Amino acid sequence: MIFTLHSKRVNKDCRPWAKKYLTEKLVGTSADKGNSKVVITSLDECTGDVDLNQRKGKLLAIYDVALKMSWQGKLKDGSTVYGSITVPEVAYDTEIDDYVFNIQINSGSGDEIKRLIRSDLVPLLATKFSHLTRDLVDQHSSDLYADKNSAPPTPELVQRKNRNAATIPTPATNTAAEEKVVKTSIIEHSYDFVGATPREIYEALLDPQRAKIWSHGKAKVSKRIGTDFELFDGNVHGTLMQATPGKSVLQTWRLKSWPQGHFSTVTLTFEETQDGTTVKVNQVGVPVGQEESIRKNWMGYYWNAIKESLNKGQLQHLPIQNDPLLVLIIAFTAYQVAPTIKI
């Protein structure tokens, strides 16, 4: 926490807070249309300055940052596309319609997913950027008064006008995007499985036969990247984004009761231990106020249920089903590199 004191003025450097704030707000933001989906999977770069100034009882939020985000998309044909979005300037005086979004396709066909990003994802991101000023003030305003008791209940925020405000008309509020904005947080927890290997836990989560047993109902899961999953009668659903057998799983994840269109991003990491396996969970985008209930759901509906099924020997005897497409690719690759035998 860095403060700079001037005559009748205090500045606070809020860059560390801003990076954490933007990560929580942006990662997991998603849009879907028809059978196409796209989700922000990480905030890779956040550079620039974020300051909150207090002068003569008035607050001034001044920031100018450049962002780079990674995204993953699923097309109608089931294929997966990866890419990034660069926003060269998120500034205190930028209007909601003036943000620049540079969309990069790293792999796959891009036209369809670019249209979805432009039409549906960009308005959501721009709306979240527009909340930075007020949230910055709400979080840090009390720190800028030497005597906390002297701080006004609602500090006066000086809003800087857009540099081009004289020539650019004020845009209409994007009501649809506003309705989708959800305050979120990050939850992390771990669970120890004694006597189980990382691959066994991985299979329990992504193999349909195993998932049906421990979830005690219909289970729509798959190891195929880009496929949707459903558990617990559709109350939990999302999309598998990445999967490394016995190592990790990345998926979008939401409860049916969450606001329409809001997904969190779940990263599961499987670590082999002396006694078995530790599963580490990182979930970005959980609506504020639901952190404890979501953590309990993971413990009860997922981990304790899988542990019980393992203890009863219900999962271990089932064969491991590999993705047939992956098997075909491996076989074809082996054939291509096999040495030619001459007689």
Topology:
Elements: E1 2-6, E2 9-13, H1 15-26, E3 30-33, E4 36-55, E5 58-74, E6 80-91, E7 102-107, H2 111-130, H3 132-140, E8 156-157, H4 175-180, E9 184-194, H5 198-206, H6 208-215, E10 228-231, E11 236-244, E12 248-255, E13 264-272, E14 276-287, H7 291-311, H8 324-337
Parallel strand pairs: 5-8
Antiparallel strand pairs: 1-2, 2-4, 3-4, 4-5, 5-6, 6-7, 9-14, 10-11, 11-12, 12-13, 13-14
Helix pairs in contact: 5-6
Model description:
29% of the residues lie in helices and 36% in strands. It contains 8 helices and 14 strands. A hairpin with a 3-residue loop joins strand 13 (264-272) and strand 14. Helix 5 (198-206) packs across helix 6. The longest helix is centred in the C-terminal third of the chain and has 21 residues, at 291-311. The chain is globular. Residues 144-166 are annotated as: Disordered. One of its GO terms (biological process) is protein folding. It comes from Mucor circinelloides f. circinelloides (strain 1006PhL) (Mucormycosis agent).
Query: What is the top-level CATH class of the largest domain?
Result: Alpha Beta
Amount of beta strand: 35-45%
Most strands sheet: 8 strands, mixed
> What's the CATH topology label of the largest domain?
Alpha-D-Glucose-1,6-Bisphosphate, Chain A, domain 4
Low-pLDDT stretches: 1-8, 150-179, 325-330
Strand segment tally: 14
Order of helices and strands: EEHEEEEEHHEHEHHEEEEEHH
Proportion of residues in helical segments: 25-40%
CATH architecture title of the largest domain: 2-Layer Sandwich
User: CATH homologous superfamily of the largest domain - what is it?
Assistant: START domain
Return the structural class. Answer: alpha+beta
* Count of the separate structural domains: 2
Domain Activator of Hsp90 ATPase AHSA1-like N-terminal: 11-142
Pfam family, one: AHSA1
GO biological process, one term: protein folding
Family: Belongs to the AHA1 family.
